[in-house]
Amino acid sequence: MSSYQILCILCALALVTSVISSRVHKLQETVAITALALGMSLLLLLGGKALGGEVYGYFVVGLEKLDFQALLLNGMLGFLLFAGALQIRLSILKHQKWEILILACVSTLLSTFIIGGLLFWAAPQLGLPLALTHCLLFGALISPTDPIAVLAILKKMGAPEDIAIQVEGESLFNDGIGLVVFVVLSQMAFSTESITALQVSALFIHEAIGGLIYGAVLGVLLHHFFRYCEEETQLMLVTLLIPTAGYVMAEVFGVSGPLAMVSAGIIIGNFSVPKYFVRQERVKLLTFWSLIESFFNALLFLLLGLLLLLVTFKAPLWWFMFLAIPLVLLARAVSVLLPYRGFRMVKSYNPYAESILIWGGLRGGLALAMAMSLPQGIVVDTSSGVELRELLLVMTYAVVVFSILVQGSTMAGLIRRSNAVPVNAKQGSVSARG
Description:
By secondary structure, the protein is mainly alpha-helical. It has one domain (3-425): Na+/H+ antiporter like fold (Up-down Bundle). The chain contains 18 helices and two strands.
């Protein structure tokens, strides 16, 4: 079967799984889809062994043909980030701008170094000594909270408004920051030439700042292009230019596509939509992008479960898999609690703000896509033949599955308790999504 045929089958399966999961009322939809897909993967693994491996091998070959990394990083990610940014309101976001900036930048970097440093210390104790740059790579790919997982779950749970602003804003921006840090560390880890601190700084600025500026320019250009559209259908379809051609051109210019999508989406949502879309058309536009978001979310979380078929669980990797979960949670807790000590000196927040930010820092397909982009053939232990890519992929998959199934399914209790806090104990603000 061709990649297109496989994708069509997966899309149909995603939609069917989405309908089935909607009947599981005790679980949030994305959690239910991932759980169902994991169940299907386990059945395929067991069935494959019982039937001589032919069925299992057929599905594995199909998933490998699909190239999950390219599908997410070069395809779905642009659409999902633009859809999320389109609903952010600058007038509301400005009340939390410093918190979001610090959480997206400082906390992401802090978490990267905490995870990398602790893994560098712990790896030799588990029999697989790792280079510091390789440990930092894992820190970089797993530290950003995944905007797709976070927005999909929090959007339907009714989190307190002040916390929703921070979680949503952070998740939209820190994935771009994380990707940039990952690219920089990859250059340091795998480049055959030495790289200086000046070159690292220049690469970071070019990717991150360049992505934000490029996205802003893209948004402004499209804003002026809207005036030539005569029908509401044209207005809606023209917005597709940004996550398609706009995202591709970001790669050509060597800037961060994810940050560009967020930047462009905020401009279109705050300036173009009020000017060119009347109220009825505005509702249709948001419905249009909500449909795209829901469809890609269903496909992504289905793939997350099915990727179990592509992960190799060798015996030496089990301890690293179990280590990764508490390691990431510890780094998330430190990187949230430290900034909040400063935040609470100048503002009042919901008493459950830190808990929701820590436990709601979900990881998803973005981390897996980055792990799958690592080069193959770099052996970290010659006796067992363990490669760096498979080690970091197993650790990442463990964190992602725990994040979505355990953290995602238990978020409701925290949110209910936070909503029960009296209004005068909360910070007065409104949601960034409108």
